[in-house]
C-alpha cells in the first residue's frame, strides 16, 4: 500500500502546529497503525528529519496510551485502540490525517503527544477504596449480586485512553469519570467513600477544565472498551444523592 499521511507537527506546547504531508509506501495491510508510524519515523530519521512524537506502550490494547485522532475519529475507523487498528482498514492511495487528542484538559506536549495526567488526578480524587490491612478475606465472604458484578466489571474495563474526551464536542470527561464511579459504587468495598468519591471526582474533573456532558453519545461510540451510556446516568444519580445528603452515603 502507498498512502499520504498528514501528521500534526508541533514542536512544543507554545509552538504553532500544522499538518505536514508525508508519502509512505510499502505498507502491509497486516501492519498496525503504530507500525505504519514506525515505518514513517524510520524514513524520517534516515533522511535526517525529526521523527514524529507519539505515545505508545503495550501495543496490545490494554494501556490506552496510543490514542490519536485518525481522519477525525478518536482511534480511527474501527472501535478499537490505535495500536490494534490495522492498515487493512484503509485503501491504497488513501490520505490519512493523524492528529492529537483535542481537549482543554489534554494540553499538547509535542506532535501527537498530549498530557493526559488530568485523568490520573481525577482518579486520585476518589477512584479508590479503603481496605483494612491484614489477611485476605475468605472468598465470597461478601456476596455481590451477579448483575451488579457484571456491570461493575463492564465499567472496570475502562483503560483511561481519553477517546471519550477527544470524541466529545464539549471535551467532556464524564464517561471516564462515570466508569470509575459506577464501578466502585456497585461493590460493597466502595460503600464507605461512596458519597465523597463522586463529589470529589466530579469536582476534580471540573477543575481540570473538561467540558460538560450534553448527552451527544460520541463518547460511547468511540470508547474501545464499550463503556455503557447508562453509566453517565448512574454518575448523575450518585452525584445528586450525595449532594442532597452532604457527604453521607447516598441511598
From TrEMBL:
Domain of life: Bacteria
Cofactor: [3Fe-4S] cluster; [2Fe-2S] cluster
InterPro entries xref list: 2Fe-2S_ferredoxin-like_sf (IPR036010), 2Fe2S_fd_BS (IPR006058), 4Fe4S_Fe-S-bd (IPR017896), 4Fe4S_Fe_S_CS (IPR017900), Beta-grasp_dom_sf (IPR012675), Helical_ferredxn (IPR009051), SDH/FRD_Iron-Sulfur (IPR050573), Succ_DH/fum_Rdtase_N (IPR025192)
Keyword hit for Iron: yes
Keywords annotated in UniProt: Iron, Iron-sulfur, Metal-binding
Domain 4Fe-4S ferredoxin-type: residue ranges: 149-178
Annotated family: Belongs to the succinate dehydrogenase/fumarate reductase iron-sulfur protein family.
Name of the protein in its database record: Succinate dehydrogenase/fumarate reductase iron-sulfur subunit
Source species of the chain: Amycolatopsis plumensis
High-level lineage: Bacteria, Bacillati, Actinomycetota, Actinomycetes, Pseudonocardiales
Amino acid at each position: 500500500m502507498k498512502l499520504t499521511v498528514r501528521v500534526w507537527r508541533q514542536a512544543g506546547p507554545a509552538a504553532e502546529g500544522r499538518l505536514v504531508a508525508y508519502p509512505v509506501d510499502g505498507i502491509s495491510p497486516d501492519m498496525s497503525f503504530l507500525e505504519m508510524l514506525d515505518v514513517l519515523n524510520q524514513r524520517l530519521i534516515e533522511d535526517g528529519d525529526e521523527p514524529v512524537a507519539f505515545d505508545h506502550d503495550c501495543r496490545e490494547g490494554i494501556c490506552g496510551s496510543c490514542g490519536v485522532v485518525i481522519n477525525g475519529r478518536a482511534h480511527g475507523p474501527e472501535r478499537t485502540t490505535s495500536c490494534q487498528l490495522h492498515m487493512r482498514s484503509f485503501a491504497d492511495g488513501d490520505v490519512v490525517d493523524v492528529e492529537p487528542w483535542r481537549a482543554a484538559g489534554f494540553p499538547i506536549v509535542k506532535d501527537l503527544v498530549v498530557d493526559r495526567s488530568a485523568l490520573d488526578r481525577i482518579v486520585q480524587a476518589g477512584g479508590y477504596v479503603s481496605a483494612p490491612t491484614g489477611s485476605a478475606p475468605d472468598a465470597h465472604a461478601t456476596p455481590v449480586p451477579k448483575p451488579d458484578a457484571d456491570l461493575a466489571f463492564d465499567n472496570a474495563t475502562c483503560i483511561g485512553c481519553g477517546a471519550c474526551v477527544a470524541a466529545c464536542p464539549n471535551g467532556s470527561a464524564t464517561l471516564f469519570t462515570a466508569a470509575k464511579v459506577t464501578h466502585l459504587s456497585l461493590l460493597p468495598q466502595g460503600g464507605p467513600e461512596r458519597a465523597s468519591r463522586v463529589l470529589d471526582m466530579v469536582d476534580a474533573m471540573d477543575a481540570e477544565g473538561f467540558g460538560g456532558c450534553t448527552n451527544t453519545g460520541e463518547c460511547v461510540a468511540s470508547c474501545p472498551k464499550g463503556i455503557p451510556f447508562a453509566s453517565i446516568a448512574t454518575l448523575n444519580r450518585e452525584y445528586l444523592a450525595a449532594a442532597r445528603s452532604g457527604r453521607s452515603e447516598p441511598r
